[in-house]
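Intended use. Records like the one below are meant for learning the mapping from a protein sequence to its folded structure. Do not use them to infer anything beyond what is encoded.
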Amino acid sequence: MSNGSVVAVVAAVIGVVLLGAVALGGLGGTRVETSVSEPVPWHFDGPPADGSYGIVMGSHQSKSGLELFGLTIGRSRWEANIALVPPEGCEVSDENLPPGGPCETAAATGRVNGGGTTASGLEFVIVSTEVSEGCHEALQPYERWPTNKPACNE
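Structure written out for the chain above:
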């Protein structure tokens, strides 16, 4: 093999590697979140001690999937963040409030992403639960959950 052929093969290999790197760089996953954040009202007492309902803390849209040269392939997901006092015996497992057993009567279930203490000293959690796009648009911070809004009951 002549020196010119070796140089051509090396250049071709480098070109293929660079093209592969560009292509793989364009296939990375994405996650974009938007949320409405409003200050907590001065008189916020937290969710009720009996766990009969939760309080909407906000909602957001997250997009995930593969991005290929500016085009995203995947689906959007809308989530509501609900503050609630878990029912007695209901415990967080693997950072989730599970949808069954002692947690069956919880106002919402899903991924736990926060928590706190009510004005009366009860601990509460904030769970992120999936909702429809219409429900996401209809929800207002600090309203009761579950809500009776038609967009959230579809």
